[in-house]
Amino acid sequence: MKILITGNMGYVGPGVVSHLRKTFPDATLVGYDMAYFASSLTNAAVLPEHNLDVQIFGDVRSLSAEVLEGVTAVIHLAAISNDPMGSKYEQITLDVNYHSSVAIAKMAKAAGVRSFIFASSCSVYGAAGDQAKRENSALNPLTAYAKSKVFTELDLEHLADDQFNITCLRFATACGMSDRLRLDLVLNDFVAAAVVSGQISILSDGSPWRPLIHVKDMARAIEWGVSRNSTNGGDFISVNAGSNEWNYQVKDLAEAVVSVIPGTTVHLNTEAAPDKRSYRVDFELFRQLAPDHQPVYTLKQAIAELYESLVAMKFSNVEFRNSLLMRLKLLTSLQERQYINAELEWNHKRNPGVSIQPTLEIVK
């Protein structure tokens, strides 16, 4: 088995690669990444890519068909990965998240790849109210990021057949410790704030709903996508990936942090305008289809792991929201230093030591 993981050097990728190495010890694992966040290591004992057989540095907008030769499964994580980045780079978000995803899927099918796993998002439901959304619920994407996921799912459905199995995992909001931690995620932000200041400031009244999933549980769901066949969900499926027990209001997430990190206080902005990004999600179909790949982390475990890791890092940056642990801040920094251009491409002439062509570098 040969598995290609795009976007492996981001927040989710290290846990996915580690899990795949343990689950498929004899598989050939290939990473493909632009390497924006390669240096963003957080308390990692070793370089996460040591679990790979090959790391390719490249742009998904120009991925070569050669990369897909002999590949059994593609795990497509690569994306402009949150709403602030999607807002600033709207057209690039569509190019990277939508057009490139579909192009890679078409190349994968032509190359004889058996399975294509697409990291989608529950954000496709948008403003959803209190009723939990199921897979057949109306989609109401509010941001460029969410729209890109909807567009990709719609196009992928037409590519699936009995020789090309497609799994779109509509993930809940990611959280938890990673070898490349992001702090621009709600739970991670709350824990970081509690560590550095002992105070969590919520920009809303705390009422919006968010489903969450630990990054390591995302890896379990992805393993299911790699292993599943058409008798388990069909040639194509879009499925909510998470757990019903992990639907929380934002204020409840803050209180959970308080319970793990005593002395933390919470400030709500009761005067804030309603946050339209509020949705509860029904994960029953995922439970039925993937009973052996259900989330195993609890909320308190996720909080405790983040807390212990940040303390071990001696994390103390009160201004962490302006730090390079925020993905948009890091991209902006790369642009300001003229490493990448307005299209988020590496400036070869200014940084001739960097190559993003699809060349191979043996890691092991």
Structure notes:
The protein is of the alpha/beta class and 364 residues long. It has one domain (2-181, 212-244, 280-295, 334-362): Rossmann fold, CATH 3.40.50. The protein has 10 helices and 15 strands. The strands form 4 sheets. The chain has an 8-stranded mixed β-sheet, sandwiched between helices. Helix 1 (13-23) links the parallel strand 1 (2-6) and strand 2. The protein is globular and about 55 Å long.
Please summarize what this structure is.
The protein is an alpha/beta fold and 364 residues long. It contains ten helices and 15 strands.
Extract low-pLDDT stretches: 350-364
Q: Tell me, rounded to a whole number, the average pLDDT.
A: 91
Q: What is the number of domains?
A: 1
Individual helix count: 10
Architecture (CATH level 2) name: 3-Layer(aba) Sandwich
Radius of gyration: 20 Å
Q: Supply the CATH superfamily name.
A: NAD(P)-binding Rossmann-like Domain
> How many beta-strand segments?
15
Largest sheet: 8 strands, mixed
Mass-distribution shape: globular
Structural classification: alpha/beta
CATH topology: Rossmann fold
